[in-house]
């Protein structure tokens, strides 16, 4: 167990370097001049461009820029944006917001997705099963900006149930709607996967035994069936946290949440390699650590799984 | 199990499954066929499929969409490209069943012509993703050791790339403005970027299935009988690990149609006059309140198409999975 | 010029917008006290791209805050009239070359120090000094001695050579006489110079600015305007409060102003409707469609025009576009009225003149090819010998230009039979990089927002050889000569007459196609009983009454 953990942690190092360099290089290869659009329809003064180019060392080859960036990173300095904002500050303020949103989304998709999955898995091909299938397909097929726009309009303005945008305090009640919107696509995946898993395990011999023993159905489903069917769902939920955090661009925009999605997107468009890499790197770490956590969770859920 | 990440994402036949009572055991082995007729797994599945109405319904729909993609002029004589502003956002009527869009173009004709780009891009990308991700997953899972570690870490690097960033770079490099790539070449590039950026998930999925399956009794038995690696992988491993990929892949068709729209919307994907459902949906977004039909029709076609693929996938998966018979 | 990266650009200039809300002033607002003097409002904003330094701000997000935090020598009245003195007591000249500027005594910066003549001179010298890299440096090019403090890089910013050190750090044309007087000498007579002085590049800076780094100052700016800076939480909100020592005309009526920074106008609009936002200066397209916003907002809806024009520019460096008859044919094939009606729901008016008619000195209706005439267009195309190949209209896909560019391409295709289509380029930066490098392969969208209210600003930058935004490389020596004469004319009237002659020649050459004039649709909450928009359609926060 200890050795296994150590090995996994050590493998983070090459992935970390590979990912950061690849992203740094990709952002650097985005076409366009970061300062060409800064002054509107008029060309920026050459003196301004020269000043900024020198300040951010953009005239250096890409590996030199990357090496400088990594050197500062090891000292805990993520650098500054072209706007003069410290990237450390951006990460500190926007990450908690995105994390909160993603956790709420994760919670909602787990509850609704799992609930729908269990219900449909137990009664496959019934009316409810088809209803869930079709409604989840609508969620997949409609782009998130449509779902967000429509729900914000209905719940926020027309019926006045919630405030349309999220305040800077990020209260839980305000996050339910954006969380639902963000989690809607994954919810569909969770429901499908849970349904399949439940349906398969429903025929497991241990379920048969439990029923034969005369256990009440509620106990059979709740304790035996659910626990064994949770593994694939937990895996999906675990990998999803990173995906939710990285994929929240549209949701954050619609609901006015100051999160990382917009920071990354804008930084890509303005070719700010340091910003993109800094934010994505934290995301990759979240994703890798979640995977590790999920792996450890398996043992708790399924006694048949053992670590070496 | 030597690596805890072996547990599959989607439930797969587990090690102890052959021990289950009741269900026809030894899933992958043709010898286990109840009627004692030697028939392969696929033949078995086909027998099973033929009896499912769900299969026939979804297959019919998919056939219609494929014909629509190949010969759109069979379905409409309308003009999907040219319009007139004078009939901008005219509601559906007997003349134009689905109405006219903001530029005054026939929505019905556009939905029909949009099937080609949407279906071609989504289906080929899904197939490509499944092939590349699946192959990498099988290799990583079956070989294990340093091969597994290397491939998994490469997948991690790709997984960390933000989709928008990767797509912008790949597509502007090959499909920047001013380049006059043909419709098919652009589709190819869009497909390539979708595949490059989404194979790691499939790879993990496949790898975990393979890891869970490769120690199963029937594989061990096959190996003991002297079967070669190729035979084990193709005949025994692959059919038993296909189910989760099918579930995932069919849903992915829907997501890819949307992803293609995002790329076109950013100006790096398909270019006018090529039309797709995703493009139509994005174009309709500002008019949801006044002209909801602009959103409704392409979304409807999209849902029906994705539904057909999901149903087909479901039917095939159930046919392949002996426990569900 | 400031540019919004979003769809709706906001101009800086001299439009007028005097809107008093229809709400009766006696309404009692639940819970808000109904009292202006200690009231608070929340208005819409976007995250500034740079620290708030006036000479380094060229975009609307930060420009709006700077306009509130600073008061310049002159101000542009909300009703669009001629510029009036603000901090300036008087600006005198006899030859349009030497200007004697006297400022009002004892006005204060927010840190309590007094605004003196040297605060202006030092601020301008800082902005012009090339190593400081200010975005607005070129605004000081009129002043004598600018060339000594602002050295261009000999091989461009990307070249290996470094820019030479300037030979001076102060412009010789600026002289402080005493605390309240200074003198400006220009390199050449420029009648329009006093009009420029209201632009944010010319704002004074307190002594505290020069003792710290500009970007540190910009995070906690100290201005001399009606409100002072309180706090700035990135991407969330900027808080401003009334400056109680403010002694000029436009004092604040409410106390606190929160500028809430949005990423999405639909979100801001929904906040406005549900009472969480008090003012939004650009209603999103989703609400403009079908005039939904008018029924949503009722008499809280405000509609105004701004001195900004959308153009389609031709790349003169591409041989295919060098025939004026072809350009005229394309212009006549575009039905601007239909685009205005169907794409913009009437919120943007079809363009019919070269300079925006809201600009002093501009003549309305002087674009003879801005009408729609398909028959004449066809004939001109035949005379021009047709058009070979595909005509692609380019735009930047990161803001909403797709609809109208698609419509233009479709009309050209239908009416001229040319194989035309519109194509987006992913970002404004990519788009501008191609425009700046003269690599466009077809007509492309452009927009011009005047920097200061005078027709000069619509001719020199756009149609004169070497003009700062003449990106298509249009050149007509006769136009250049007339514009030069007009710029150096002794009076504004004489200058305007000469410019009219130049524009008449431009009309024959059709270097670009004016398509529509921008309009601005805004709305306010029920809480606000009365407010005005300034000359560019932004909220004039000093007029807000609850």
Order of helices and strands of chain B: HHHHHHHHHH
Distance between the termini of chain B: 29 Å
**How many domain regions of chain B?**
1
Strand content of chain B: under 5%
The rough form of chain B would be described as: globular
Shape of chain C: globular
CATH architecture of chain B: Orthogonal Bundle
β content of chain C, as a range? Answer: 15-25%
Helix/strand structural class of chain C? alpha+beta
Distance between termini of chain C? 32 Å
SSE-based structural type of chain B: mainly alpha
Assigned CATH superfamily of chain B: MetI-like
CATH fold annotation of chain B: MetI-like fold
Tell me the total number of β-strands of chain B. Answer: 0
- Which stretches of chain B are low in confidence, meaning pLDDT under 50 for 5 or more residues running? 1-36
CATH class of chain B: Mainly Alpha
Please bin the fraction of helical residues of chain B: 55-70%
Integer average pLDDT of chain B: 78
The low-pLDDT segments of chain C are: 1-34
Oligomer state of the chains in this structure: heterotrimer
Keywords:
heterotrimer, A: 308 residues, mainly alpha, MetI-like fold, 0% strand, globular, B: 325 residues, 10 helices, disordered N terminus
Brief synopsis:
The complex is a heterotrimer of chains A (308), B (325) and C (546). Chain B is mostly helical and 325 residues long.
Structure notes:
The complex is a heterotrimer of chains A (308), B (325) and C (546). Chain A has 308 residues and is mainly alpha-helical. Chain A has helices at 2-29, 46-55, 62-74, 87-122, 127-141, 144-158, 172-201, 205-212, 217-246, 249-254, 260-269, 273-301. Chain A folds into two domains: 12-77, no CATH class; 95-301, Orthogonal Bundle (MetI-like fold). Chain A has twelve helices and no strands. The radius of gyration of chain A is 24 Å and the shape is globular. Chain B has 325 residues and is an all-alpha fold. Chain B has helices at residues 41-50, 53-70, 107-143, 145-160, 163-175, 183-213, 217-224, 229-265, 277-284, 293-320. The longest helix of chain B is centred in the middle third of the chain and has 37 residues, at 107-143. By secondary structure, chain C is α+β, with helices and mostly antiparallel strands. Chain C is built from 17 helices and 19 strands. Chain C has helices at 60-69, 117-128, 146-149, 193-196, 207-210, 214-219, 265-273, 285-288, 292-297, 324-332, 336-342, 374-383, 402-416, 428-436, 456-463, 477-487, 492-509; strands spanning 40-45, 74-75, 84-85, 88-93, 98-103, 174-178, 181-185, 227-233, 237-242, 256-261, 279-280, 301-313, 349-350, 390-396, 419-425, 444-449, 512-524, 530-533, 539-545. In chain C, strands 11, 12, 13, 16 and 17 form a five-stranded antiparallel β-sheet that branches. A four-stranded mixed β-sheet of chain C has the order 1-10-9-8, with helices on one face. Chain C has a four-stranded antiparallel β-sheet with strand order 4-5-7-6, covered by helices on one side. In chain C, β8 (227-233) and β9 form a beta hairpin. The model of chain C is unreliable at 1-34 (pLDDT under 50). The chains are: A mainly alpha (308), B mainly alpha (325), C alpha+beta (546). Chains in contact: A-B, A-C, B-C. At the A-B interface, α1, α5, α6, α7 and α9 of A face α4, α5, α6, α8 and α9 of B.
């Amino acid at each position: 167990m200890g050795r296994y953990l150590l090995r996994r942690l050590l493998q983070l190092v090459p992935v970390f370097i590979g990912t950061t360099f690849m992203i740094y290089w990709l952002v650097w290869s985005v076409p366009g001049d970061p300062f060409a659009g800064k002054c509107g329809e008029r060309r920026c003064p050459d003196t301004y461009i020269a000043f900024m180019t020198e300040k951010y060392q953009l005239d250096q080859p890409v590996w030199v820029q990357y090496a400088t960036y990594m050197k500062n990173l090891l000292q805990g300095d993520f650098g500054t944006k072209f706007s003069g904002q410290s990237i450390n500050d951006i990460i500190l303020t926007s990450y908690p917001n995105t994390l909160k949103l993603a956790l709420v989304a994760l919670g909602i998709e787990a509850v609704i997705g799992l609930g729908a999955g269990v219900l449909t898995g137990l009664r496959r091909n019934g009316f409810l099963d088809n209803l869930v299938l079709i409604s989840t397909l609508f969620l997949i097929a409609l782009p998130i900006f449509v779902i967000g726009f429509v729900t914000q309009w209905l719940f926020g303005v027309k019926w006045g149930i919630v405030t349309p945008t999220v305040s800077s305090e990020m209260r839980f009640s305000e996050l339910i709607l954006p969380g639902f919107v963000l989690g809607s696509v994954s919810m569909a995946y969770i429901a499908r996967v849970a349904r399949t898993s439940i349906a398969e395990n429903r025929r497991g011999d241990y379920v048969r035994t439990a029923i034969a023993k005369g256990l009440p159905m509620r106990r059979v489903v709740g304790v035996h069936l659910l626990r064994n069917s949770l593994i694939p769902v937990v895996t999906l939920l675990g990998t999803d946290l990173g995906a939710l955090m990285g994929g929240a661009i549209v949701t954050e925009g619609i609901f006015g949440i100051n999160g990382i999605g917009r920071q990354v997107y804008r930084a890509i468009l303005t070719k700010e390699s340091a910003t993109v890499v800094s934010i994505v790197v934290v995301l990759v770490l979240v994703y890798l650590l979640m995977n590790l956590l999920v792996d450890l969770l398996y043992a708790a859920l399924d006694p048949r799984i053992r670590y070496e | 199990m030597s690596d805890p990440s072996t547990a599959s994402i989607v439930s797969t036949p587990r090690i102890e499954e052959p021990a289950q009572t009741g269900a026809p055991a030894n899933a992958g082995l043709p010898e286990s066929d109840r009627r004692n007729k030697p028939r392969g797994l696929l033949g078995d599945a086909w027998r099973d499929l033929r009896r499912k109405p769900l299969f026939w319904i979804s297959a019919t729909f998919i056939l219609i969409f494929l014909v629509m993609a190949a010969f759109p002029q069979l379905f409409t004589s309308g003009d999907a490209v040219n319009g007139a502003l004078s009939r901008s956002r005219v509601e559906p009527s007997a003349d134009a069943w689905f109405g006219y869009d903001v530029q005054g173009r026939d929505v019905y004709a556009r939905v029909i012509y949009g099937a080609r780009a949407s279906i071609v891009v989504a289906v080929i990308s899904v197939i490509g993703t499944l092939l590349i991700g699946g192959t990498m997953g099988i290799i990583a899972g079956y070989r294990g050791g340093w091969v597994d570690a290397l491939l998994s870490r490469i997948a991690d690097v790709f997984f960390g790339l933000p989709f928008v960033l990767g797509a912008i770079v790949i597509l502007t490099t090959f499909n920047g403005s001013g380049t006059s790539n043909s419709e098919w070449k652009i589709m190819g590039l869009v497909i390539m970027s979708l595949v490059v950026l989404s194979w790691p998930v499939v790879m993990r999925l496949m790898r975990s299935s393979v890891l869970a399956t490769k120690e199963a009794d029937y594989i061990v038995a096959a190996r003991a009988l002297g079967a070669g690696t190729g035979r084990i992988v193709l005949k025994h491993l692959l059919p038993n690990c296909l189910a989760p990929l099918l579930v995932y892949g069919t849903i992915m068709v829907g997501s890819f149609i949307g992803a293609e729209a995002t790329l076109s919307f950013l100006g790096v994907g398909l270019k006018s006059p090529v039309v797709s459902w995703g493009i139509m949906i994005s174009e309709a977004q500002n008019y949801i309140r006044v002209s909801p039909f602009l959103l409704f029709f392409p979304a409807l076609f999209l849902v029906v198409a994705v539904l057909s693929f999901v149903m087909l996938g479901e039917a095939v998966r159930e046919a392949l999975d002996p426990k569900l018979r | 010029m400031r540019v919004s990266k979003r769809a709706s650009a906001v101009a800086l200039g001299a439009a007028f917008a005097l809107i008093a809300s229809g709400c009766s002033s006696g309404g009692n607002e639940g819970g808000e006290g109904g009292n202006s003097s200690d009231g608070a409002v929340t208005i819409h904003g976007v995250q500034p791209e740079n620290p708030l330094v006036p000479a380094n701000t060229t975009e609307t997000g930060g420009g709006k805050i700077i306009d509130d935090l600073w008061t310049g020598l002159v101000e542009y009245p909300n009703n669009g009239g001629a510029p009036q003195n603000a901090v300036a007591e008087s600006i005198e000249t006899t030859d349009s070359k030497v200007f004697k500027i006297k400022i009002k005594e004892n006005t204060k910066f927010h840190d309590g120090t007094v605004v003196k003549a040297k605060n202006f001179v030092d601020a301008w010298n800082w902005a012009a000094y090339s190593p400081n890299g200010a975005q607005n440096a070129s605004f000081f090019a009129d002043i004598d001695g600018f060339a000594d403090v602002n050295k261009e890089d000999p091989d461009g910013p990307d070249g290996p050579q470094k820019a030479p050190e300037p030979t001076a750090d102060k412009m010789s044309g600026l002289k402080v006489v005493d605390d309240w007087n200074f003198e400006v000498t220009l390199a050449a007579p420029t009648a329009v110079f006093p009009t420029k002085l209201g632009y944010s590049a010319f704002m004074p800076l307190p002594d505290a600015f020069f003792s710290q780094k500009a970007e540190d100052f910009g995070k906690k700016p100290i201005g001399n305007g009606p409100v002072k800076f309180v706090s700035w939480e990135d991407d969330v909100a900027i808080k401003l409060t009334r400056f109680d020592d403010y002694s000029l005309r436009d004092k604040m009526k409410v106390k606190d102003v929160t500028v809430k920074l949005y990423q999405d106008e639909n979100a801001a609009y929904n906040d406005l409707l549900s009472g969480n936002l008090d003012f939004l200066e650009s209603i999103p397209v989703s609400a403009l469609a079908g005039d939904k916003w008018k029924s949503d907002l009722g008499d809280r809806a405000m509609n105004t025009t701004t001195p900004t024009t959308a153009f389609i520019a031709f790349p003169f460096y591409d041989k295919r576009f060098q025939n004026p008859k072809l350009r005229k044919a394309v212009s006549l094939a575009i039905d601007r009225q239909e685009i205005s009606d169907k794409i913009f729901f009437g919120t943007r008016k079809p363009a019919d003149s070269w300079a925006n008619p809201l600009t002093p000195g501009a003549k309305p209706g002087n674009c003879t090819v801005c009408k729609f005439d398909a028959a004449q267009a066809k004939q001109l195309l035949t005379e021009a010998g047709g058009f070979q190949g595909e005509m692609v209209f380019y735009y930047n896909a990161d803001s909403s230009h797709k609809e109208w560019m698609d419509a233009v391409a479709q009309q050209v295709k239908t009416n001229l039979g040319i194989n035309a289509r519109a194509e987006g380029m992913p970002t404004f930066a990519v788009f501008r990089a191609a425009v700046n490098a003269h690599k466009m392969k077809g007509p492309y969208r452009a927009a011009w927002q005047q920097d200061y209210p005078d027709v000069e600003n619509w001719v020199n930058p756009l149609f004169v050889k070497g003009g700062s935004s003449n990106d298509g490389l249009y050149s007509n020596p006769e136009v250049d000569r007339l514009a030069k004469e007009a710029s150096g004319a002794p009076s504004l009237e004489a200058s305007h007459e000469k410019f009219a002659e130049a524009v008449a020649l431009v009309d024959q050459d059709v270097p670009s196609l004016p398509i529509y004039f921008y309009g601005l649709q805004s709305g306010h909450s029920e809480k606000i009983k009365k407010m005005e928009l300034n000359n560019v359609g932004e909220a004039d926060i000093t007029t807000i009454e609850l």
